[in-house]
Amino acid sequence: MKEYEEVRSHLVAMLEELNLRLARITDNVRHSETPLEKDFAEMATQNVKNEVMDYLGNSARAEIEMINQAIARIDNGLYGICQVCDEPISKERLEAVPYSNMCIKCASKAEQ
Description:
Number of strands: 0
Radius of gyration: 19 Å
């Protein structure tokens, strides 16, 4: 666990940033600061914007979940081990994507 304290701190910082971003996205989609437009063209534009914001919100939620899982793996002593083949995940991969749960070989196979 001590081996990954710095990684854990980085993941917690990432989590805090994502939670702030998600809160802003949620406020934006709910139009908490500005009311909906009455003009049809403006409504259509807002609907497109809402769809984009919803996508960004869903992406942020997915990343938050992956980060939470990585923090749990650190706490449980399983961080850095591929969940598919049980081999170590390379240091370079963990530096690039600190919430990786698969080695590059298994991740490549999963994408196919």
